[in-house]
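Box S2. Input/output pair 1.
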Amino acid sequence: MTEAPLLLTERLTLRAQRPEDFAPFAAMLASERSVYMGGPTSQKTAWLWFAADSGSWPLMGLGGWTIERRADGAVLGQVAVNKPDFYPEIEIGWMLYTAHLREGYAFEAARAARDWAFGRRGLKTLVSYIDPPNTRSIALAERLGAVRDDAAARPDPQDLVYRHPNPGADA
């Protein structure tokens, strides 16, 4: 796979990142809201993350998508299925830009990415690494059906690990 597959939901397009997507991505990572993701970060660090999320597609068949609203093309945030070298497992993560919170976009995008990961990508397991005070991400992981896995390895000893069930697996 050489680039991010295009995923469509009722309201969203998940697409490959473009250079013009970097400015809102960097602004989010420079804000106080990024504290749960190791931020706030510099523009240089944000660029390295953005480039890694894009560059992971040809290297690993995993990476980040820009979340775009289908109705008007507005860029809402990012969702990613990735595994940097220092992650013990493949992770699904999400971030919505402040103006687009509480509209169900994060759930819709994360569900589409999760379903792609287990479906077309054929993954057997998928986790989310979440900073304990990040109650919004914990609630989203649980809404997606993920359960806390305290025995799982994690990139940061303080992270919580939420394991996502395969929605297509037999119960």
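Box S3. Input/output pair 2.
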Amino acid sequence: MIPKDPVILLSFVNTKLRDEFSSLDDLCAALDADPADIAAALAPLDYHYDPDHNQFI
């Protein structure tokens, strides 16, 4: 289950990316999620996915 609250989502996604997945696409494939939906949820917080760091920064 992916958190709905954007702040909790940010922590959840960045932790998963750091500990378990080599890319946002890999994470989303495993969780059956859409990368665009996650990016859209975090954009209002001014966080954007950086593939070089494999984190939302």
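Caption for Box S3: The CA atoms of residues 21 and 30 lie 9 Å apart. DSSP finds three helices and two strands in the chain.
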